[in-house]
Amino acid sequence: MRRLGLWWLWGLLGWTACDLVAPAQFTPEYVVESYQIANEPLQPVWLSRTLAIDGIYRVDSLAVRGAQVRVLLLDAQGQPEEAYDFEELTDVAGCYVPALAYRNVYVQPLRTYRLEARMPDGALLTAETLVPDTFRIVGANLDSVRYQSEVRLELRVTRSFYPGRQAVYILTTEALEPTEANLTPIGRALYEDSTFTLEELRVSGSPILNEANYTEQPDGTLLLRLPWLAIVFYGPTRVTLSALDNNLYDLIRTQSVQQGGSTLSPGEIPPVLEHVRGGRGVFGSYARVQYTVVITR
């Protein structure tokens, strides 16, 4: 089973124990990775351990086996309303999926879910996510476009809602025929001048966007124009716009600063925000819309 990707979480997978000052002694921590999607079935939960900065990453040795995992749907008072047990996949290390009875349970928008993972040593990892509201595509100007033409794909979408703040988004493009022959000039330059594989180039993502990055229409919808820099392959391309919960928003924006996305000096760089108790990582959620366009030569 393949992770959802989180194509757009640059470097999120494979946490290491590193800081501006090296710790005197490395202590492994538990790591969760799970992304729930509004109006889609419950998604897998991945459990692992952190790796020392000089360690060698091996999935099987870091994966957590034998944990007890469940996801709770909370009511308005923060009390459990429903409980969904997860079970470990025998052939995928550290991956837990909804038990058979809950595989048709859909994630509800604007509801809060709590993850509880009891580790084999008795340690408890918990996290909560408030799921963004759904939104939809109400118009598109074309279904096929010539690469680098003056006309670009334009999507008109309704607004997602998130309590307490403006909605924030991530834009991703996924090539559905990612062959070497289909590389665009930008894609070929990346492929030939770096160590990127075709699989690594298949999906590309934007930085965090808010509604100021779109054109507001008279009817209140938002107009998104696809930038050509996001196109790495010719052929059918799936465009996804995702509205983020607070957990993903905080993680991505602070992680980008850690990776050099600011002008702050090392002593001013804030830590990565991870809303997990008893461990590290992310138990997040998002709502998404998707549209497929063909990029021609």
From TrEMBL:
It comes from Rhodothermus marinus. It comes from the Bacteria. InterPro entries: DUF4249 (IPR025345). This is DUF4249 family protein.
